[in-house]
Amino acid sequence: MARVALKVEKGECDNCLNTFPGWALYKPLKSEECYEAICGACITAKAAAKAKVEPLVVSVWDSEHGKFMKAQRNLALDGSLWTVMPGTPLTIECQAKWIAYRSTLNRMTVDCSNPSDWVWPEPPALEYAEAL
User: Fold this and answer.
1) Residues with Cβ < 8 Å from 42, sequence gap 6 or more?
2) How confident is the model over 72-130, as pLDDT tens digits?
3) What is the C-alpha separation between 46 and 61, in angstroms, rounded?
4) CA 54, 55, 57 angle in degrees (round to 5)?
5) How many Å separate Cα 62 from the centre of its chain?
6) Residue 116 and residue 132: Cα distance in Å, rounded?
7) Residue 39: in which H helix or E strand, if any?
8) Closest Cα partner for 29 from 1, 60, 67?
9) SS3 for 91?
10) How far apart are CA 120 and CA 75, in angstroms?
């Protein structure tokens, strides 16, 4: 059943007792007949309570430790960018190893759910191509 906005200039929500412009107040549904007017915030809160909605889970990677780990990962990615750029003096095989290493670092927050469980991969050895 759809809610209908009240046609008043200003009014008070009977649930939270805050004053709102008329367009922000609604007639209650039959199950809420103890109210004459109800605001959108109270409607949302009641719906969430009724549905037993769990609060939004924040990623463990957003903790201080997780942010530190991501910063260290970013430093490692920045420091190894030259290994995969065109014109690098490394062998093709070595470049492939560095691409895999960087991919593992890039997927750190996807492949590991907890920063405390992360195991840092070993950077590959540098293998230079022979000069022509």
Assistant:
1) 13, 15, 16
2) 999 999 999 999 999 999 999 999 999 999 999 999 999 999 999 999 999 999 999 98
3) 31
4) 110
5) 9
6) 46
7) strand 38-39
8) 1
9) coil
10) 13
